[in-house]
């Protein structure tokens, strides 16, 4: 059997994830820029009016609103025009949004830019999982699927590091460069073999597989036949939304993927990413909020880098269980600190280190498990005929919860206090542990066909 080499599929996996770096800059942007657009100093704030509390909530949550709408456009585009072309199109949203932010002087234009960023986020999160799932070989699918989280947090760290130390325009220019670089490099990557087979372009599918596997045409024949048989079977039963519920396997896959994605958002991760500087400022720590935020960003990148190395050895389920339990513990300790501060306990000053430690622990266990793995599981759970529909539904589910959490966090925080806000997130993480334990099956080392057979048993 021809051996081949994994190098090219990793190259394609890294290049497509440059879009995730661009996505990450949108998620982390409000942390360094929030103090800027809230400032009375007209030399740093480009807006003619400071946003009020409601407008600030919309600045944070509109990305999630755009991201929950976009999958219903991105999924059909991926089926009709291909995964590659749809992902290239996502860079247009990012470029337009950064240009709007460069030229804005009004809150309205800032809000429009954030909504457009959300469209880009939704396109990437919907289609990239399809692309990775279809180019990766069985033994590397987990590692390649988990690269998404590593690159998202790299984009977040990018704005955390640059944002506090450059002007408003300087950060927008720095962020604008990323989607341009992505489009310029991803243009040279192949379309997925699965997409070509759905369009009866067998020769193109062979060429794509040859490039990805580093093999001759003869060397990819076995994989081509397996993929072709799977696609043919799926395309005979071309499906819509309701077809997700016609078989036990697709129904169970939808419950698993939508559940994991929901708990990912209900863990409170976006509150921490979007408002980390504000959270650190509330603790009264002697460490600068900007430095604390950068430290959290560095930990995110290091933790996310560990997942591709361990996921195909340890499996998805054990890592997700550890992640859920760790997040629950982190929220419990954060809530404890803010409760002691709320009741004006004399001992709160002696544990001023606890919030930073708790958030670092939280992002570590999140980035190892519940950050990357729900998306990796999504990329391998569905047959070709329902994959785009399922990806659209799951991605929108993600951002429905993301929007609700971001929109109402400030209100909840004021109504019940920061301590109860974190404790509520902790309860959600405990439920996530039980859900993962009882619902998720292990897919380590299984082919896509084997996963479908297991789901339907």
Automatic annotation (TrEMBL):
Family matches, as Pfam families: Sugar_tr
UniProt-annotated location(s): Cell membrane
Domain of life: Eukaryota
Transmembrane regions listed in the UniProt entry: 12-30, 58-78, 85-105, 111-132, 144-163, 169-189, 253-275, 287-311, 318-340, 352-377, 389-408, 420-438
Domain called Major facilitator superfamily (MFS) profile: residue spans: 1-444
Main localization of the protein described in the UniProt heading: membrane
Keywords: Cell membrane, Glycoprotein, Membrane, Sugar transport, Transmembrane, Transmembrane helix, Transport
Topology relative to the membrane: Multi-pass membrane protein
Physiological role: High-capacity facilitative transporter for trehalose. Does not transport maltose, sucrose or lactose. Mediates the bidirectional transfer of trehalose. Responsible for the transport of trehalose synthesized in the fat body and the incorporation of trehalose into other tissues that require a carbon source, thereby regulating trehalose levels in the hemolymph.
Homology family: Belongs to the major facilitator superfamily. Sugar transporter (TC 2.A.1.1) family. Trehalose transporter subfamily.
Protein name: Facilitated trehalose transporter Tret1
The organism's taxonomic lineage, starting at the top: Eukaryota, Metazoa, Ecdysozoa, Arthropoda, Hexapoda
